[in-house]
Amino acid sequence: MGREGDYDLQGKRAEVQLETLEGEMEEKGYAAREKELSITNVEAKKWSDNRGNSRISGFTGYLHFIWPYVFIITFVFFGSFLTGYASAASFPDMADSLMKGFNSRFGPLLEMNPFYIMFAIFLNNAFVSLVSLILGLALGILPILFIAFNGYLVGVISHIVAQQKGLLFISLALLPHGIVELPMVFLSAGIGLRLGHQVFSALLGRPTEIKREFKEGLIFYFHWIVPLLFIAAIIETFITPLILSFV
Question: Is 205 strand, coil or helix?
Answer without folding.
Answer: coil
